[in-house]
């Protein structure tokens, strides 16, 4: 009887989460899957069209452009953010007075809301009066890039901005570094290993599970990037060089009122993300070393 009573009490505590999951996750997920096979907007009832939305996507030049932009961004932003986060974590793993304060200061930027971040960097990267170009001119670069208006630079501007939020990954790397036994570094030093050798043969192998986790999470986040590009480059300007899949999905759903097409786009985006995640996990099998494995 006590076991049944405990089970009922546990179920009561879990009910708010269960209802939240069903209402805010399960139902929208199933509804979007159904709508992806319909011609639907908030102004009219769904009309079944079968695979028409998916066939249209296959020949949609704008979708292919956004897919290319998104993949380029992800391939560039994830490794760069990884290098920056690991570098910061190694610096903050030092035993220096006041290190707790330094760790807090380096983590705080990742808490800035994305819309505010986009607004801030509109000023930083402005070609005429921006802070970055003012610094470059002071260093002697008379004609610095037009970061926001040149298609050749706009996408890379977003890649640079992506490092601003690496504080969360940095904290995870820091936790991983603190789990590396000091005795391994001491043994490597006895063998004559220098800094780079210790990093290549000790730090990175033992940190590889953390790198894999942060890499996969960063990849998923990069494929869904939306707020900063949407604030800084409305409509994917210039010349759609910053038009990403998430922005195209949003425009179809709320600007063009094509909810069915946007739902199909969302499911294609999900499948692409799933496939790339699976490939990443498979490719990492020979390079990730688990403790005791």
List the helices and strands and how they pair.
Layout: H1 2-35, E1 38-41, E2 44-48, H2 52-58, H3 61-92, H4 99-107, H5 114-124, H6 131-138, H7 151-162, H8 167-177, H9 182-190, H10 195-223, H11 227-232, H12 245-255, H13 259-284
Antiparallel strand pairs: 1-2
Helix pairs in contact: 1-13, 3-7, 3-8, 3-10, 8-10, 10-13, 12-13
Concise summary:
The chain is mostly helical. It has helices at residues 2-35, 52-58, 61-92, 99-107, 114-124, 131-138, 151-162, 167-177, 182-190, 195-223, 227-232, 245-255, 259-284, and strands at residues 38-41, 44-48.
Q: What does it look like?
A:
The protein has one domain: MetI-like (MetI-like fold, Orthogonal Bundle), CATH 1.10.3720.10. It is mostly helical and 293 residues long. Strands 1-2 form a two-stranded antiparallel ribbon.
The largest β sheet comes out as: 2 strands, antiparallel
| Backbone shape | globular
**From the helix content, strand content and strand pairing, which structural class follows?**
mainly alpha
- What's the CATH architecture? Orthogonal Bundle
CATH class: Mainly Alpha
Note the total helix count.
13
Provide the succession of SSEs: HEEHHHHHHHHHHHH
Low-confidence stretches: none
* Main β-sheet, spatial strand arrangement: 1-2
CATH superfamily: MetI-like
Q: Output mean pLDDT.
A: 93
**CATH topology-level fold name:** MetI-like fold
Please tally the β strands and state the result. Answer: 2
Query: Considering DSSP H and I runs of 4 or more, what fraction of the residues is helical?
Result: 55-70%
Whole-number count of domains: 1
Radius of gyration: 24 Å
End-to-end CA span? 43 Å
* Range of strand content: under 5%
